[in-house]
Design a protein that fits this description.
About 35% of the residues lie in helices and about 25% in strands. The protein is built from six helices and five strands. It has a five-stranded mixed β-sheet, sandwiched between helices. The N and C termini lie far apart (about 40 Å).
Length: about 150
């Protein structure tokens, strides 16, 4: 469980958070290779996410204010599963010096609760095959490795 003296709360991201969010995305070998230093595409993406009611881009703040984590939750309406929506969790990141403190658990638990609040029938996520620590983390939160995912870069 996170130390409440060190972790603030989950909140909706603001445009002013973009430098911290992009730094979190860049802060690992996969992200360092695929993230840009140009702020323009992140600003455009933020504006689109922020304007969409089915999106929630959130930050987890340190008790003193700095952003220590982030994720994006997308609610996807669907016909399958009796017409139930699903929550899609993306881009879960926790600052390197705060990993293992429960910060990631707090973020994902927020996303699960928010998905439930929005009437979703399930929550799903993908994680790169190389992220063995993330696989253990998600399994520990009750996620089941039940599907095979495919991607096509455009």
């Amino acid at each position: 469980m996170p130390d409440p003296a060190r972790v603030g709360s989950v909140r909706r991201a603001r445009r002013a958070d973009l430098p911290a969010l992009v730094a979190l995305l860049r802060d690992d070998p996969l992200g360092a290779a695929r993230e840009s230093t140009d702020p323009a595409p992140y600003e455009a993406a933020f504006d689109a996410i922020d304007a969409d009611p089915n999106q929630a881009l959130v930050c987890l703040d340190d008790a003193d204010g700095p952003v220590i984590g982030t994720l994006q939750l997308t609610v996807i309406p669907g016909l399958s599963r009796g017409g139930r929506s699903r929550g899609q969790i993306e881009a879960v990141r926790v600052r390197a010096d705060r990993r293992g403190t429960g910060a990631g658990r707090l973020l994902v638990e927020w996303a699960v609760a928010e998905s439930r609040r929005r009437g979703c029938g399930l929550v799903q996520l993908t994680t790169d095959r190389s992220r063995a620590d993330a696989h253990r983390f998600y399994a520990g939160l009750g996620f089941v490795d039940s599907h095979r995912g495919f991607k096509l870069a455009l």
